[in-house]
Amino acid sequence: MHYFYHPDLTQDFIELNTEESEHCIRVLRHRNGDSVRLTNGKGTACLANIINDNPKRCSLQISEFIIDELPNHNGLHLAIAPTKNINRMEWLLEKAIEIGIYKLTFLNCEHSERTHINLDRLQRLSIAALKQSQTKWLPDIAISNFSQFIDVNHDTNADKFIAWCDDKNNVQLTDFNRNNQEMILLIGPEGDFSGNEIEMARRENYKEVKLGYRRLRTETAGLYGCFIANILNFQHT
Amino acid sequence: MHYFYHPDLTQDFIELNTEESEHCIRVLRHRNGDSVRLTNGKGTACLANIINDNPKRCSLQISEFIIDELPNHNGLHLAIAPTKNINRMEWLLEKAIEIGIYKLTFLNCEHSERTHINLDRLQRLSIAALKQSQTKWLPDIAISNFSQFIDVNHDTNADKFIAWCDDKNNVQLTDFNRNNQEMILLIGPEGDFSGNEIEMARRENYKEVKLGYRRLRTETAGLYGCFIANILNFQHT
Fold this sequence. Notes:
Strand order of the largest sheet of chain A: 8-7-6-10-9-11
Order of helices and strands of chain A: EEHEEEEHEHEHEEHEH
Helix content of chain A: 25-40%
Number of strands of chain A: 11
CATH class of the largest domain in chain A: Alpha Beta
Oligomer: homodimer
CATH superfamily of the largest domain in chain A: SPOUT methyltransferase, trefoil knot domain
Number of helices of chain A: 6
Structural class of chain A: alpha/beta
């Protein structure tokens, strides 16, 4: 059954925005009376019937909420320096949503090769990924400077990790039990974090970890983090 | 330092094939006396100096073998039904080589949406991925019918798993300790394995497992298997 996004499912009657209406009515050719699924991207999903198949302002009546026991997300807040090739980040975003990421922040680091991110485009892509993978969680996507990110998360209860290529460190992310619902994982640019950045993270008690025994590309490392968060989340709760 | 592929590093002097010669001399503009790295894709890597910068038949002298303690591969023999969209398989192949897969077989299943695979193209892509990720293991890539695959691996010592969407089964691949150096993981097409195929696997003692708690796309499931093989491999030896 086709799946559409609407941020607010608290009313009985809802109207899709232009983009979703077009997808539903023009592309997928749904008509009055058809039943589809909706999600608000915040853990709620429901069944709804189309009552006005207007291709610009499709409206629906909610018939039933869908209850399942799957967690909405894996609790991972991934903060990652974007790669020069933005396709690799878009790919990561799509996969991360499929796997169930909680939040995604693009970090502007000292060694970053890319500083510009088109947030609008990524948010549109994330709605497409949400619908395609039929999940119920649309992660917040943000952009932040490294130091600003560290400051903002000063008081968090999350488990905090920083992954970097330290030849002397053999502590793996998988060595940790999961203590909290949320974990933050910092992943640096191809040229890695600067010494200054690593020092800032240390002062804020980020645990230094490795992601396996190979040197992974940035986006592969991000994906590794997503999978590990799922495993730790489900195995330790 | 640039990395090139040559299947045989047992001689002091080696000559790259046309494709590798062109990449080395024409694309990357190496000249006589330059030092590069070579791998045979079977775990051996070395340094070598260019002694003839012919763009069709570049020859080199091996100067030194590179010794490290990283395992060559993660022991995973992934047998997966190819997706209709071959890009998703090419992407999986690239990532699987980066992560360190041992072998990859494309399975022709009852519900397969794609039966044709261009093996030559995938082998060329895998050499490119090997060089790009600077790993030392070029996995064997094969195509097989499901039943033929099961028969051929009848006498293997590998741990054998089949992942399929059984709502009644909650056994996770991550629940197992790794007993052997090699593990086989079967992943089916979008429409899943047929009842007949699952029965065949059961008779050959494949353990039925899940890959996390979400329904993943075929290529994401394959990648999950690659990461888990790394984790089990390193944590239990």
